[in-house]
Design goal:
Largest sheet: 5 strands, mixed
CATH class of the largest domain: Alpha Beta
Strand order of the largest sheet: 2-8-7-6-5
CATH topology of the largest domain: Aspartate Aminotransferase, domain 2
Helix content: 40-55%
Distance between the termini: 53 Å
Strand content: 5-15%
Shape: globular
Structural class: alpha/beta
Radius of gyration: 22 Å
Number of domains: 2
Length: about 475
């Protein structure tokens, strides 16, 4: 089907307030041109993230009314545990209030200073949690991931040669686990093939290293395997998920993505000693192991959402709606990262704004312009999020990709609203020469993109900027 049709009816609506360009311009100045600081009620279409922004189903809301708020041994926990085990197959299930806490618990337990965690590409919070332990977050994705024009179907794949070289160079004792992020968010929402996962497992087995998944978008990854990988077209997404997780020793998950909930996450694994150590820490910072910082009703909503996300009609629409936006932009000549990923369309800011140097944050500048002109909020995935300072020279090391991510919340926006987003971006692309760069005026020592502040570089000639 060319145009995806919604496999649901709308039962409850939330009014959206439209704002004027003047109001948005004022809000941007007050926010230091950081879209994280703009009030959500002043956003018309909010594509900042797909995390925790899903619309829950009537079944999930019904489950909320069955919340057992007992401090220990809530019946909702046991349902949640049963569902997670039925999908992932790991022995231990530890609920957390969101994915980054699952990451924090895992890395606080198993990492020591000087250790290393290889991953295809770490997302920002994963990287921060590794580096907080004074360990190295090493990206070993295939080189094609950094080519926005390459249409390879599984650009999230691990580079196995690079991974083996890293293990030999660093040493097995300094690598407590290898992680694969599915889908690969920082690389454009690109999936990882089952063949690559299987081969990664075989490689780490030679060294006796556990394999973990960052599984927050596992269902979308499994849908891409069904759609693109030979031998899987006739398998159900549930069967594919079972095989995928069978190659791992555990996973972390933000259920705010493919759990279809607004809060929640978990850590699931097989290792008994790691589980005991993690649980001890969990009690200190999150709560008792059968609620993990969540209400019983949240556990029930998670359990039901994890089952709903595997519905293939839902996944077909979900991936199809993202693809619909990407194809509208691509047909109009707007530079995007290809192939179109599972949860978001990524605008290629380097090619969208070639007149803005990377040192002047073209992706952030593009995100600011999109909100100011049309009330659409995306998020920068580029130098603000991933730029680093060279310790020796103090110079900024810019990332390969400079993108604006348009992450589409699940079951929230109609295709007419998605069309509005496409038409707005196409119009902005035609007027792109009027967009100016930004200068950083404040940055936090870690995860700076959440709180950074900027000022606009309005009428400074490009050559003068370069000379300065």
């Amino acid at each position: 089907m060319k145009f995806p049709s919604e496999p649901f009816k709308i039962k409850v609506v939330e009014p959206i307030r439209r704002t004027t360009r003047e109001e948005r311009d004022r809000l941007l100045r007050h926010a230091g041109y950081n879209l994280f600081q703009v009030p959500a009620e002043s956003v018309y279409v909010d594509l900042l993230t797909d995390s925790g922004t899903s619309a829950m189903s009537d079944n999930q809301w019904a489950g909320m009314m069955l919340g057992d708020e007992s401090y220990a041994g809530s019946k909702n926990y046991f349902h949640f545990e049963e569902v997670v085990r039925s999908i992932c197959g790991y022995q231990h299930v530890i609920p957390t209030h969101q994915g980054r806490m699952a990451e924090n618990l895992l890395f606080s337990t198993v990492l020591k200073p000087g250790m290393c965690v290889p991953n295809n590409i770490h997302f920002d919070t994963t990287r921060a949690n590794v580096e907080h332990q004074r360990a190295e977050a090493l990206d070993v994705v295939i080189k094609e991931a950094y080519d926005p024009h390459c249409e390879m179907p599984f650009k999230g794949n691990m580079d196995l040669i690079q991974l083996a070289d890293a293990i030999d160079r660093i040493g097995r004792d300094r690598i407590p686990l290898v992680m694969i992020t599915i889908t690969n968010n920082s690389g454009g929402g690109q999936p990882v093939s089952m063949a690559n996962i299987r081969e990664t497992r075989a490689l780490v087995n030679r060294y006796g290293i556990p394999l973990f998944f960052d599984a927050c978008r596992f269902a979308e990854n499994c849908f891409f395997i069904k759609e693109r990988e030979p031998g899987y077209a006739e398998k159900s997404v549930v069967e594919i998920a079972h095989e995928l997780f069978s190659y791992g020793d555990g996973c972390t998950m933000s259920a705010k993505k493919d759990g279809l909930v607004n809060i929640g996450g978990f850590l699931s694994l097989n290792d008994d000693q790691w589980t005991q150590d993690i649980t001890n820490l969990l009690i200190l910072v999150e709560g008792f192991p059968t609620y993990g910082g969540l209400a019983g009703r949240d556990l029930e909503a998670m359990a039901r959402g994890l089952l709903e996300v595997l519905d293939e009609d839902y996944l077909s629409f979900r991936v199809g709606q993202v693809r619909y936006l990407g194809e509208l932009l691509d047909q109009a000549g707007v530079p995007i990262l290809k192939p179109i990923g599972g949860h978001a369309v990524y605008l290629n800011a380097k090619e969208f704004l070639p007149h803005i140097q990377q040192a002047q944050f073209p992706a952030q500048s593009l995100a600011v312009a999109l909100y100011r002109e049309y009330g659409i909020r995306g998020v920068e995935i580029g130098t603000v999020m991933f730029g680093k300072k060279d310790v020796g020279t103090g110079r900024t090391i810019h990332p390969e990709l400079e993108m604006v991510r348009l992450a589409i919340p699940r079951r929230v926006y109609t295709n007419m609203q998605i069309t509005y987003v496409a038409e707005s971006i196409i119009e902005l692309y035609r007027r792109r020469q009027g967009i100016h760069g930004l200068a950083l005026t404040y940055e936090a020592p870690v995860l700076r993109h959440f709180t950074a502040r900027f000022e606009e570089l309005r009428a400074i000639p490009i050559l003068q900027q370069a000379a300065s």
